[in-house]
Each structure stands twice: as C-alpha cells, then as structure tokens.
Amino acid sequence: MLDVRQLWRGLHGVPQLLLVQPDQLGYDLAYALALLPLVVAGIVFFLQDSILLFAISFLAGIVCLLALQLARLTFGLPAWIGFKATHPLVASMLIACFFSPRTPAWVAASLVILFVVIDTVLWPQLQRVMLHPALIVFGILFIIQRELGVGFVNPFDGRHLEDPLVLWYKLQIVIDPVKLYVGNVPGPIGVTSAGAVLIGVIYLWYTRKISLGVIAGFLCGVAAVALAIRSDLGFQLASGPSLFLAGYVAADRRRVLLSERFTFVFGLVAGGVTMILRWYGEGQQAAWQGFLLVSAVVTVILRVQVMLRHRARAGRPTSVRTLSVESREPDPHRLWAPVRPQVRQPVMAASPVTTAYSRGSAARPVRSFETQSDSNDLVRQMRNAATRSRPLGGLDASPLLLVPALLIFNPLGLWLTWSSPSIGRTARLLLSAASVLWYLGVAGLAFALTHR
C-alpha cells in the first residue's frame, strides 16, 4: 500500500516537474520529450515508411544500450565511456528524424550504431572539440543517399520530388512558408514540419538545455544574407531541417565550448555560410555543411589556444617565493610567554547499536583500500577492487565468441549469457527479451522488403 501511495505522489509530481521545474530534468529526458512532436508528425505524414525507420532505429539503439551494459558487466569499461554522451535510445531517434522516407533499413541501423559508438566511445576522449558527431553521421548519410539515389517524396501522394530549397535554386519557385511550417513538402521524416521542430526547440530552451545565442545568431545570419540577395525571408527561415540542426544539434549546451558572448557570433557565421551554400544549390544539406565547417574552424582555434597556453606555461620561469627573515632581537614578551598545552580531542567510541542508515550489525572485514595510506595508492586500490568485483570466471568462452554476443543476439550469445554466473537474473531476462525483439524486427523487415 505504501508503494502505491508513493507511485501516486510521483505521478502527481510529473506535471510540476515537466512544466514548472523543467530545469531539474536531465538532458536525455528533456531531449526525449522534445523529440516526441517530431516523431508524431513523421508518423502522421509518412505512415508506414516512418514507422519502419523509427522502429529499426529504436531497435538498433536497444542493441547498443544492451551491448554497453554487457561490456560494463564483463570487461569493466573505463569511466570515460559515455561521458557527456547522448543516451543510445535518444540518439537513435535523433538520427532517425533526419532520414529520408526511402532510406534502406540497413542504412538506418548502421548509422545509428555508428553514431552511438562515436558519441559514446571516441568523443569523450577528445578535449576542446566543438564538432558534434551527428554532423559527421549526416555527412555519411548524404554520401550514401547520393550513391543509392535515395531522395525525398511528397508526404501525401508519395511522388518523388526535390526538396524546396533545390526547387528554389533550379526553378526559382518559392513555396508558401505556411506549407513549410505545416509540413506539406518533401523532406526528412521527422523534421519536415518546421512547426513541430519549433515546439521541441522551445521546450529545450525552456528546460535550459540549449543555447539561445546559437539559434538567434543562426536565424539572423540566414535573414541577413536572404535580404542581401533579395530572397523571400519567410521561405528561407521556415526550413525544418535547418532549425532542427541549429536547435537540437549545434545548440546543445554539453557541446558548446564558447562563452555566451561568442555563441551568437558562432550562429551568425553558421547562418551566413548556410545561406551562401544554398545560393550555390546545396538545398537542405547546406545547414549541416555550414555547421560542420564553422564547428571545425572553431575547434581548430580552441586547440591552438590550448597549445599556446601550454607553451606559455612551459616557457615561463618558476618564481621562487622569498621569506623575510627578522634579524632583530626577539620580543621578550613572546619569549617568556607561557606555552599553551595541546588540547586533546575526546576519543569517539564506536557504538555497537545499529543505526537507521547502517546496512547490518555484523562486523564486516576491512578491505585493503579502507586503510590509511597514500591517496594515490587508495585510488589505485579502489580501481582494482572495482574491476575485480565482477569477474568473468563462470564464462568459459573466448572473446571471439563473446564479441558477437554483445553486438548481435544469437542463440550462442544467449547460451553464454545464461551460463554465466556473474550476470544476474534481471539482466538475463532483459537480454532474452531484447533477443526476441531483435528477431521480430528482422522478421518484420524481411516481410516488408518482400511484400512491397
């Protein structure tokens, strides 16, 4: 009964947490809520194609999440794994929103896994890097779509059409900005509607998870160049993919390394470069290309600053602190002052009574890292104890058999999972459920490809 009351109180506190105190939300939960309008709009517009791509991407995110959990249980991953990284499930939806409706399922799953690996394993090791890994993944997606001939389709009749910016460049046709805002145009499945993207960006700004200077600067840069070339201002600003890249990707406070006074300049330059690339016919791809170029330049500048600071510190001579020595005679009052006895603190006796926060009254053995010793030795012993706390003793399998079990859940991997005594029952059930979902997803993909 007490658990039901606590659950009821927690449910009552959800609206207050989401709307009144949104700054207490974590980045992953805030981004998940902000991606909901995009997913709903994509399903409404593109129906079966978007459902298949979202499902495949989400299954790929589940595989990445369980693979990371298994790697932590078995191999003991370092502490920097996943530092400031997007959650695999949120990352899967973030990448899936930029897919074309004609994107093959294997491309979608591969790019989601690639983004999770880069963002979780590679990027946390880099310092002073303002280049979002999603921009690199979108670049690879652009190359694959161009090689496979994958384009955009009209969300209502399914006809193959170019995106509005390419039509504006080739035919000098300006589409109604209201249609761009609603989503009655070809585009990616999740960011076709600029209105849905704007709702998510407003919520992210309300939760203080994105930098407003980057978004404002980007829009001002696009508007300035659009007015200079005498283009329709509403048409250039009502691009859903551009607003998505500016708000969800480039303005993420975890990635922005500039101060607030420089974020507007960063967005302004990115908006100007984006509009110049549009003028030369890049279309919807101009936004990620502009952010990629400006982010790379800013990263190089930040790295050069760090190198110059290190050189300046290395070349600076170490200053020797001088102490003044008194050569006069000592003060007689201080010389004959009585010496104060050292006050000893009372010894605290350990009570045998178990307190409310203690886990048990039985005396536990003292571990090697709980004794008083050097701080570095203490940290080293704690790390050794943490890495040896979950041994791989019950798993009589080589890493060559265990790695496929972490990536693709097959019968051999499930047998190794259930035969390992170091994995708990809850983890085994979760892995088995993920394996069933994986096979169902593969069967659904095969059915969809064979019955087109």
Give a topology summary.
Blueprint: H1 2-20, H2 27-46, H3 48-74, H4 88-96, H5 105-122, H6 133-148, E1 152-153, E2 160-161, H7 164-171, H8 177-182, H9 194-206, H10 212-228, H11 233-237, H12 240-250, H13 260-279, H14 286-315, H15 332-335, H16 375-387, H17 399-407, H18 411-419, H19 425-450
Antiparallel strand pairs: 1-2
Helix pairs in contact: 2-3, 2-9, 3-4, 3-5, 3-19, 4-5, 5-6, 6-14, 9-12, 10-12, 10-13, 12-14, 13-14, 17-18
Verbal overview:
It is a single chain. It contains 19 helices and two strands. It is mainly alpha-helical and about 450 residues long. It has two domains: about 25-310, Ammonium transporter fold (Orthogonal Bundle); about 400-450, no CATH class. Strand 1 (about 150-155) and strand 2 form a beta hairpin. The protein is globular.
> What Rg do the Cα atoms give?
29 Å
Question: Mean pLDDT, rounded to whole units?
Answer: 76
Strand content: under 5%
Helix tally equals 19
Largest sheet: 2 strands, antiparallel
- What is the CATH domain class of the largest domain? Mainly Alpha
The CATH topology label of the largest domain is Ammonium transporter fold
The helix content, as a percent range, equals: 55-70%
Low-confidence stretches: 332-337, 347-375, 388-403
Terminal residue distance = 52 Å
- What is the H/E string? HHHHHHEEHHHHHHHHHHHHH
Strand order of the largest sheet: 1-2
Number of domains: 2
Secondary-structure content class: mainly alpha
